[in-house]
């Protein structure tokens, strides 16, 4: 049998129907599809809509940051800071006012009392300050140690020992405090009472360091550790730490 080649079949045109699967109608060519040169949709036909849930905007490119709404600034930290500043300034002002007023009151009281009692007389004459009446009897600046061994106390320089009586002229008990009593030399240098030496020199006279009831009187000694050769000229006595004080010449 002689081989007979098949005759070449021409390709169908672009707008010709394409053969389909057996039993199915042929599909139209690309020319009849929208967007490929086919006819536009009929007038009044609905515009194709995206499927439900499909995004209406294209997603951002990979790595791009999604736009964010601007953040609102919180106002409460600034309000709290302003309140704290106002409170601090108010406290500082109040503290200054109180300290200034207290200082002025103390200075006024000191001026009033000291002005009247700057010099109350001489030794062996009563002088008053507050609830106490003082009578200075003598002063001895010759000792360099006081007290009995082994409790004796030695001076850095020399001890000036002032003997006196203290009477409570008030209406309630009052404690005499030796550390509130000051002594001065001719140049105005101030010296404080030596508490350790005061305890040693007074020995068993414990009433001198305790409360004194109204109307009672005690005798005791104040001790000042001063450089050798120093001469005390004035003693300033107080019934308490904040009283005006009374000055008595030591001569």
Automatic annotation (TrEMBL):
Segments forming domain DUF4352: 123-245
Taxonomy, superkingdom: Bacteria
InterPro entries assigned: DUF4352, Immunoprotect_excell_Ig-like
Pfam families documented for this protein: DUF4352
Entry keyword GTP-binding: no
Biased amino acid composition, Pro residues: 37-49
Protein name as annotated: DUF4352 domain-containing protein
Disordered: region residues: 1-67
Transmembrane region(s): 78-99
Keywords for this protein: Membrane, Signal, Transmembrane, Transmembrane helix
Naturally occurring in which organism (per UniProt): Paractinoplanes pyxinae
């Amino acid at each position: 049998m002689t081989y007979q080649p098949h005759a070449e079949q021409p390709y169908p045109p672009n707008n010709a129907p394409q053969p389909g699967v057996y039993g199915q109608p042929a599909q139209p060519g690309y020319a009849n599809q929208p967007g490929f040169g086919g006819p536009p949709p009929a007038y009044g036909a609905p515009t194709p809509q995206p499927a439900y849930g499909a995004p209406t905007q294209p997603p951002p490119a990979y790595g791009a940051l999604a736009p964010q709404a601007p953040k609102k600034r919180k106002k409460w930290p600034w309000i709290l800071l302003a309140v704290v500043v106002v409170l601090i300034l108010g406290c500082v002002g109040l503290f200054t006012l109180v300290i200034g007023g207290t200082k002025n009151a103390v200075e006024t009281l000191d001026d009033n009392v000291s002005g009247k009692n700057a010099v109350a007389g001489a030794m062996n004459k009563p002088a008053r300050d507050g609830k106490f009446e003082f009578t200075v009897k003598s002063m001895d600046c010759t000792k360099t140690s006081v007290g009995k061994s082994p409790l004796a106390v030695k001076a850095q320089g020399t001890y000036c020992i002032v003997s006196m009586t203290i009477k409570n002229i008030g209406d309630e008990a009052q404690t005499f405090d030796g550390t509130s009593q000051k002594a001065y030399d001719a140049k105005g240098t101030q010296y404080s009472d030596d508490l350790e030496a005061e305890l040693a020199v007074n020995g068993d006279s414990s009433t001198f360091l305790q409360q004194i009831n109204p109307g009672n009187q005690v005798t005791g000694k104040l001790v000042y550790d001063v450089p050798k050769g120093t001469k005390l000229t004035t003693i300033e006595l107080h019934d308490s730490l904040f009283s005006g004080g009374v000055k008595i010449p030591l001569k």
